[in-house]
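sry for the spam today, last one i promise. struct tokens for design, 284 residues
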């Protein structure tokens, strides 16, 4: 398995295969016609080698569906630029009904972006699309890019899907400051883990991804309050479990956890809601 995930970019193939699994269901909550091509045989092999690999598709499916909803809603409300950091094999510019004049910027390492563009060669994005090949860990080029993009959009939505969990807290803080330095970067959409989720993933999946140089690191105990000193505030929090119930994409025995939840103290119920979620932040 260590050979299947050789670097963090391979996790994009894993998630793309989950999108393919969902897209091929007759009752799919979203359709990604490019997902199976993007995942390739390696994406399927990674999922099949993971403990309970296929059974754990539901949180990734929920994350994709909820982020689709938020992106489309905010674009309709006036966002004219989306900046997708660590974009991986995400195909939203090709598969979502985005305005032709809107600008979408994918930022990621050259290898994974080149693979995506090669796979999608001949396909036309719905909007104005720009790929940026960059290592986001390099602060100076990152700040230069953000300054340029800060001037190219009036109201920008930044997306970090499946990124922050792999970063140490100090790197997340640095990224938050650099994003906040651009006044036009109005919104930040992310998925956010809790310490309890990190513990669970550490037990089940971390040895696999750590072997490929992609350990799980970021799950702040203070949840979205982590971002407040950095200039960002929570606008919307959607718990993955609750959204899974809404979308009818849940884990096995979800009904039992809902029943047990009726008897939990208020504080524990709130902690469970914050176990894992999709978050929209705005500028303070």
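last one done:
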């Amino acid at each position: 398995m260590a050979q299947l995930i050789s670097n963090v970019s391979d996790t994009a193939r894993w998630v793309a295969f989950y999108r393919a699994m969902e897209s091929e269901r007759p009752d799919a909550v979203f359709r990604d016609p490019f997902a199976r091509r993007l995942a390739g045989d390696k994406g399927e092999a990674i999922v099949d080698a993971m403990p309970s690999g296929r059974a754990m598709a539901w949180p990734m499916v929920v994350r994709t569906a909820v982020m689709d909803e938020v992106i489309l809603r905010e674009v309709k409300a006036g966002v004219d630029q989306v900046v997708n950091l660590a974009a991986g094999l995400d195909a939203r510019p090709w598969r979502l009904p985005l305005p032709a004049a809107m600008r979408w910027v994918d930022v990621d390492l050259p290898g994974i972006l080149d693979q995506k563009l090669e796979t999608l060669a001949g396909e036309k994005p719905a909007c104005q699309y720009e790929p940026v090949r960059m290592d986001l860990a390099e602060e100076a080029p990152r700040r230069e890019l953000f300054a340029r993009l800060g001037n190219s959009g009036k109201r920008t939505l930044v997306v970090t899907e499946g990124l922050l969990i792999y970063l140490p807290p100090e790197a997340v803080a640095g990224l938050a400051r650099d994003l906040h330095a651009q006044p036009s970067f109005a919104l930040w959409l992310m998925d956010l883990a809790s310490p309890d989720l990190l513990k669970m993933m550490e037990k089940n999946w971390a040895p696999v991804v750590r072997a490929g140089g992609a350990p799980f690191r970021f799950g702040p105990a203070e949840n979205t309050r982590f971002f407040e000193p950095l200039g960002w505030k929570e606008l919307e929090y959607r718990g993955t479990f609750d959204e899974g119930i809404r979308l009818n994409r849940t884990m096995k025995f979800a009904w039992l956890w809902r029943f047990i939840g009726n008897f939990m103290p208020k504080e524990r119920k709130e902690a469970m809601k914050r176990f894992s979620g999709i978050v929209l932040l705005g500028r303070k």
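The mean pLDDT is 90. ok im logging off now
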